[in-house]
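Structure (tokenized):
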């Protein structure tokens, strides 16, 4: 053992520049964020499916969900009941179905469905 230790050459430790370490960490963070984005997309689709199922049960809607038109909310409106869709001014809505009277069934960007009065919408 003594002879082996005698012939070993000790290599100096290379110091890595601090900037390079920081850059390497940021690259790793970006890759991790990509994976988080995919995961949240899956969670979002599950939530939208759940909202659609709730919509079908609540409104007894068995037809195919088809977008008839796109509208913009003219003003912010709070919902009085669960069947109504709360609005914020300037929000984009998909009109799903026209109901008798002054209300239409709409879907917002989060995938939530509900009744909206035609008075509160601007159609393009």
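Design, position by position:
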């Amino acid at each position: 053992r003594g002879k082996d230790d005698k012939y070993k050459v000790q290599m100096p430790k290379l110091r890595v520049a601090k900037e390079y370490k920081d850059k390497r960490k940021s690259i790793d963070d970006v890759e991790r964020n990509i994976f988080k984005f995919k995961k949240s997309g899956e969670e979002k689709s599950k939530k939208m499916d759940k909202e659609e199922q709730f919509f079908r049960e609540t409104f007894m809607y068995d037809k195919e969900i088809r977008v008839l038109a796109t509208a913009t909310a003219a003003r912010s409106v709070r919902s009085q009941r669960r069947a109504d869709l709360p609005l914020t001014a300037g929000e984009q809505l998909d009109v799903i179905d026209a109901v008798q009277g002054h209300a239409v069934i709409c879907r917002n960007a989060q995938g939530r469905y509900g009744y909206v009065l035609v008075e509160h919408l601007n159609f393009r």
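Reviewer-requested clarification: The chain has a mean pLDDT of 77. The beta strands are 69-73, 92-98, 103-107, 113-117, 121-123.
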